């Protein structure tokens, strides 16, 4: 009976704890709803700002906001009702607990009085047995009466024990449900941690890819620098060749005046080509400097990203350590459950270990709750870190796109330079042919210039050979670049295959983890069965009357703790009420803002109706410009404004602007242009 009373008191304690947990859950739900309301209000503000562009959308958005406000007011009333119901339920539970504790105390006092009376009667019976044998008959009859009374009391106690057993079964079932929920939440957190690991691994892969792309870009820039140096060398060679040609032209000018004019023209063309080449070289130098600046920026971004990567890796290590600690805690919890099963078996022999085991279980439950809360906090922090890392990755991708665009521009410039060099080669060839023709014409006239002409032919052949060499080198470079591009494509395909293989491995690991979860669930069910069997065995054990004195003190301590928790719950309810008042103030502020937006919408609708009511003016009705008053004639033409429909002269309607009814800029008067721009 005493153990049953103990179990009843502990069950009442657990019920009170469950009630407090439910209140906390309701409080968290209220906070979540409050955050949702704030998010909804922010979304409404964004929709109202967008409605300034489209008047029709604005009216629909206002209707939606009104509906949302009505819903929020309804939810607000529902929240108030729920808070009042929670406070009433808490008060009722508090009263019921006090009543139960008082009844238990009164029953204990009655049992003590009965015990004292029985002990006194037994001592008197022993004295009577020692003194007088005749008084045995009387004492036997009295003893039988007392036995009957005791049996009746025992029957009552058995009935109460059965009722308490039923209550205990109900409470144990609720405890099992809570344990299941706790395990489900732990499994969910494990899954989220696994997902976080996968996402972090993918982020690391993306960062590695970004590093590889940066290295490739550095190589391409080095190649561009080498190409620029080669172009510089070519320009120097061309300068030397042009100088030699100018010397030869001067000699030819001194001999023949007719040749002077032609050679001067050719020298002028060569000077122009030199100036153009100098300009090209300056442009190339500017692009080279810009590319170097971009390289420096990329290097700085790369070093910053490397530091961020190190920080994320350190965070990953800390997260993995925390996960390993959590797994160790889970293993220790399982070991503790096994120890608890052993301790329950030892309850048959010792009663004092029962109280110690119960205290240990309560502490473990508290620790698990704390661990769960810590895990949830860590989960939220990890999610925030993931969001930050995703934003950083997006920034790196943007930088990568910019660099690729710059490389494409440089490649286009290289192509244009190649084309220009090819054009210059063709021009030089044409010039050579012209010179050959001139030489053939002059051979009959001037015999003294044959030696000089032969020298010029030799120089032209040298130039041809050099140009061929340059063309071959350019072709080789082009082929090498194509080979590099093909190799890079192959490497990317190999990387994609590796990613697919890793995905298959991960799916296999997930299936293995699911199988392990199934085995763990089976083991947990078998442990639950053992616990139920042990609980039945503990129910069969009936305690002695002496344990009641110790249990009364424990019950009083528990009662004090429950009272303190109830007071804490009332304080939390008051805090929630203050939060609700703050939310009401925020709602009032948002309603005022929505009313202001409605007024703005009305003013915009008035402007819209004014714009719709405007008519297209007829040419026959208007004889003068409606802005400056200039008269229309054959030279002064009429022009309609596509916004207001009025007729203006060309000067007053010279501006173009975008209107709601047109996709392209349209002719508009000065007044409508200012309105549209404002």
TrEMBL record:
Q: From which domain of life does this come?
A: Eukaryota
Q: Where in the cell is it found?
A: Cytoplasm; Early endosome membrane
Q: Where mainly found?
A: cytoplasm
Q: Which GO terms describe its biological process?
A: endocytosis
Q: Where is this region: Disordered?
A: 129-149, 172-195
Alphabetized UniProt keyword annotations: Coiled coil, Cytoplasm, Endosome, Membrane, Metal-binding, Phosphoprotein, Zinc, Zinc-finger
Q: What is this protein called?
A: Early endosome antigen 1
For this protein's source organism, the top of the classification is: Eukaryota, Metazoa, Chordata, Craniata, Vertebrata
